[in-house]
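Review this fold:
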Amino acid sequence: MVAPDDEVVPVYTSKRHSRRQSRPRRGSHAITDIVNTAMENELASLAQSTDMTPQIDKLATFQARIREMDAARRGGWRRRVRKVLKNPLATRRGQFYHYGMLATIICNFFPMMLETLDGPANGGTSPAYPFLPSSTVYYAMDVFFTAIFALDLGLKLVTAKHQRKFWRRLDTWIDVLGILPLFGTSFMYFVLGWGQPRRKNVEGYLKLLRLFRIIRVTYMLQHVDGIKVLKTTFVECLPPLRITLFFLGVFVMVFATMLFYAEPCYDASACPFTDIFNAGYFAMVTVTTVGYGDQLPNLDNIIAVLLCASIMIIGALYLAMPLAIIGLKYELTWLRFEIKQTSKSRMLTRARSTMRSLRHLMTTTGLPSDAIHPTVHRVYIEFLGFTKEALQLETMISAYMAIPPKEIFAGVNHRDHNEALERLHVACKHVIVTYQKFTHDMRAFEPVQLPPAEPRGRTQDHRPSSLTSKASDALFRAKRAIQGGGPAYAPSSTRQEDAERRPPPSLRRRLRRILERSSESTAGQIVHRLVFGMVVSSVLVFYAETMPEFQAFGPASLLCRRGIQAYCSRYGSNVGTDPGCFVWLNATTVSSTPLSFGDDSCTSDGCFGSGYNFGSTTTPRDCSTLFSRPSKSCKLRQCQPDHVPIADMTTAWIVPETLFAAFFTLELALRLYATKRRSLFLQSTGTWLNVGAIVPYYVEVLASITDGRDPLFAILPTFPTLLTILPVLKMLRVLKLGQHFKASVVLSRTAILAYRRLLIPLFFLFLGCVSAGAIFFEIERGTQCRAHVPCPWWGRDIMTVDLSKSFPWGKRIQVQVDKLTIITDMWRSTWLSIATFTTVGYGDMKPRTPFGRLFDICAMIFGSCYTAMPLSLIGGQFYSCYEQFLKKQKQSQSGREAPQPKPIDPLHHKRPVGVLDLEAIDMLKKCSVVVLLLDEMMQNMVKINQLSPHPVAFGTIVRTSQSPHGHKLEHQLSMYQPPSRDLASHRPPERNTETGVLRRVSNSSNSLFGKSQHRVEPRESVVSRPRVLDVKELKESDEHTDDDKMQRLTHLRGLIQTASTHMTTILLQLTRVMEQVMVYDDPGDDDDLDDNDSNGG
């Protein structure tokens, strides 16, 4: 049936649309409006038809199409679930799923943590936490959480649009690994039939995979604003942090090496730094001001204490650089994000209002906005902005020109007039900036390639030579004439053939290119990476040579033999004090023959470790009775038994050391051969650093040949000699790594600029530490007493048996009430003050008395506040230097030129774009005279302002030496300074030289307004140094009659009016240029063209 004309035809509306009609939804109105409009049109056509049968079939077909469109719009359940999983924060259901999964992950973490505690689930008797659940409860919790995560993974798998892409995603495999432990345990129990003892170890490793459930939080929160800011900050901080952290590692390992040699290990039970890696750990703990206190230097070792104090101060200063980068980058990223969000909300508000307006226009006029190119739109907006600002400037000029002459000459309302001139100055600058931006973007519409102008009377094969080729040929002829050989003329083509016939570069030149300019060739990059890898490997091997895990210890070991040999050569020259260094004839008799410290093959009675000699199992006496210094001989780490190394590399280090020495020697020889100037190469610091790094190898080899022994590269710092300290030079290879980082100059630049400013703060920091140490000592030193002697204190004896039993009679000790004093001298109290000021706090030294703790609180606060000054200085200076480095890099990459807009090719673009012809380009160039016009207008308005007794002073200083009231005149002339440079700043950059008093000269070039157009050029310089006027000159300049001022005012106003007229002409010409740019598709025109073509056919 067809509805009557008076009935209202029901309009199609989906159920989902009717439910959410009150709530706006982005993009939901388009399909519904189209369907409703289409249905209204179809029903209206049906109502006008007389034949009902075909129309009913058409209506049924149309209703089927509507149902298909509705199903496509709503989608199936897979599409809806996929939408919720992909963007969970967009809907309420998605938010419920998102936060529910986060809560599940957090709740899953607590059973994982509680399961590691000593409870009933771990077995055994007397658990420390008997109230914890059993293993069955933990297993049930694991099944519950695994089921939730497996269900989530199953939904993602079923609703995935592309299965191959789904299985390639990283988050998919994170989810799979998160649920794998339970399935692995079930597989071992039910399928393989393994019992609990057999699968216990495997389950321990499988449970580690549950940590991937926590990693899910990172990609679940990727849409949160804070995570986006953190990600952006991390990406921006990565380049500077890569430099600072690398050199931080170098700094730490250099100090660790120095600490390792400064604190040798003579006592295996109290050895703070067993190897360089251990010392590096201590240095990093100190630099980061953590200070666990598990490793401490011996406070009686002055060198070690001074090194640790240097690490505290220098490390804290160095760490300020990466911290400043991270803090500033994070703050700037948050600021940019907030600005972006604010502008985005404003743009959404404007876009909604614009869409409503466009929707209305599209229903009425059919504006083809989609056909407009975005560049055209941007240029059109800039042109409108320039026109608007130019008209506003003209209005302001007209208002300034309307000031009555009497007010100008008498100085009435001179403040308002001066402020109006300053506003004109600022508005004029805005107009120039807008115009320059407009002309810069208009370059995109210039032709991609102009047709070459073919000279008349010449063919393509006989074109004239360019100026460059002519000059090159002239220089070549002159050179050949001076040499007196060969033809005097050789064209460019001949020289090109000679260059092709030239033999290839020599081997030396190719080597120089590979070694010194590695980035220019593939071979150079390979060599560069090879050198980098060898440097890193050699440094790691050097550190590994100090580790006890790769050394064999014991009384009969090679390292123990070398240690006792070094002791005997230094201290064991007397058989009465050190009988262990001599040969024992029997269990009670020792001879005056020194021990022989040969290799392991020495088995005679005079060798170390044989017979009754020291090192053998039949040694008759205790070690403490064999040596005068048992603290340095009896507890050596290398002589202790029951040490099992991971691998005995004591004598095997010669293989990698020989490889590294050969490689770096070859590299040094090749660089010496390939360098252009060998004298400068030999004088450079880097060359001698490379030489010093390979010297230890050759010295050890020569010493072993001289002594008749095998080379030994295992490092032990005990009994230091020149031969044992020389391997420290291998650390110089670390400095070669700085050549692989271009930004390393930022650190040196920061150090050069900041060291003078740091001298005073560091000096007073040193004074503060010494002063605080003195106060700590006075408060915490206790009472001086003598062991086993009564010591009265406040009427009672504080010398107890427990305190004195470990000391000999009369030994001086310091007692603090009922305990021994910790801070016994100012050396230790100064150590405490340094650890407190730098916030390290090892915990070995601490105050005990209430007054000491009160003073310590003050020292903590003072140290934290005072060290903020040098830390902020270093951090700010490093950030500034790094920004300058980035700026220079960008300038070098861009050639110090502004990026030009990419030309648009109208033939290879979806939307048509107008291209300017030669006439429009010439017109656009001529319109650039607007800058000179505005400059001249401002100069004339300044001259009008100078007719007032209280003008604005632009860069003028009054000399007041001869006037007692000169300060008043100077104040009046400098009251209204412009916000930037003087008015000559309106000039384009190429004409903005040292401008000062300006003169008007005639422009001989053809311009838009003819040859009579004037332009302004500089005459004198007053920018760098303002012009100094005398008071007499000012008085003489004021002695003009009113008629002269009136004539001058009329003349200046006429010039300004003429310039304003020219501005109007320029705007009209620019409008004509813009007409060629504003091109868009018109379907109607295409249809007309098709019709014309068909009719013509």
Summary: The chain has a mean pLDDT of 75. Residues 403-445+925-946+1044-1077 form one domain.
